[in-house]
Amino acid sequence: MSIKLLEIRDLNVQYRGVEALNRISLDIDVGDYVGLAGTNGSGKTTLVKAILGLVPFEGTISFQSRSLREFVATKHIGYLPQKMSFLDQRFPATAKEVVVSGVFCCKKFPKYLTRDDYKAASQAMEMLGIADLANRMIGRLSGGQQQRVLLARALVHSPQLLILDEPTEALDPQSRETFYSTIERLNKENGVTVLLVSHDIGSIGKYASKLIYLDRELVFYGTFEEFCNSSKMTNYFGAGQHIICHRHN
């Protein structure tokens, strides 16, 4: 029996009178690996911001049956934002210092780091196979290495839901496959519930168990196989849907 982790009902978000999301209702279960797709301006990032409590909204968002308005979502959610990188080689932080900074979301004032926090950072890095990078300056790492460090930062406080916003945009194909394989392992072996934002439906179909497609409204939510066999989506995409499904196979 599935257990609901995140419940969204009749979600509406507006920016300066312009409707960004309209009546979105969906559930994400514990252990799900859900891909979130849509064109630019379809509301993907807005949905993520609403889940994180970063934008005002109408409707309800519940996490483990508790209203999002009752608690700080970042204590329960790990977030890897889009386009976060350290291009300056002189950025004054080691990889481990970046990872351990992820615990600050869960601390009350005054915020200070403990021995247990550094231990959690070491464990997160070991889990992702980057323990050897701990003392290297973050700005001197490759794009793929930086992304895994940032993933460890998102995981260091043991979140129940991991949200990834276009996490492989700046990665080369090999680094991208390594990153996706890491996320798949976290989901299957560690039971981390994943919400992956991507414009590449083919990649979502390769890894995720479910697919959300937004166009300011909820166009589709189901398995990739259901997406490929949906007459509604065939009408929506036309021949493009068959190309996506063919690439996945």
What this model shows, in words?
With 249 residues, this protein is of the alpha/beta class. The chain folds into two domains: 1-76 and 160-249, P-loop containing nucleotide triphosphate hydrolases (Rossmann fold, 3-Layer(aba) Sandwich), CATH 3.40.50; 84-159, no CATH class. Helices cover 35% and strands 24% of the residues. A six-stranded mixed β-sheet has the order 6-7-8-3-9-10, sandwiched between helices. The longest helix is centred in the last third of the chain and has 18 residues, at 173-190. It is globular and about 55 Å long. 37% of the residues are buried. The mean pLDDT is 87.
Give the tags:
single chain; 249 residues; alpha/beta; Rossmann fold; four-stranded antiparallel beta sheet
What are the SSEs and their pairings?
Elements (H helix, E strand, L loop, with lengths): L3 E12 L2 E12 L3 E5 L6 H8 L6 E6 L2 E2 L9 E4 L14 H6 L14 H13 L15 H13 L5 E5 L7 H18 L2 E5 L3 H7 L2 E5 L3 E5 L1 H5 L2 H7 L1 H10 L1
Describe the structure concisely.
The chain has two domains: 166 residues, Rossmann fold (3-Layer(aba) Sandwich); 76 residues, no CATH class.
CATH superfamily of the largest domain: P-loop containing nucleotide triphosphate hydrolases
Total domain count: 2
User: Which stretches are low in confidence, meaning pLDDT under 50 for 5 or more residues running?
Assistant: none
| Beta strand count | 10
Helix coverage percent of residues?
Answer: 25-40%
Give the strand line-up of the largest sheet: 6-7-8-3-9-10
Secondary structure tally, helices:
9
CATH architecture of the largest domain: 3-Layer(aba) Sandwich
Q: How would a textbook summarize the main sheet?
A: 6 strands, mixed
Class based on secondary structure composition and strand pairing: alpha/beta
In percent terms, what proportion of residues is strand?
15-25%
**CATH class descriptor of the largest domain:** Alpha Beta
- Roughly how many Å apart are the termini? 29 Å
Which outline best applies? globular
Question: What average pLDDT do the residues reach?
Answer: 87
What string, H for helix and E for strand, traces the elements in order?
A: EEEHEEEHHHEHEHEEHHH
C-alpha-based Rg, rounded = 18 Å
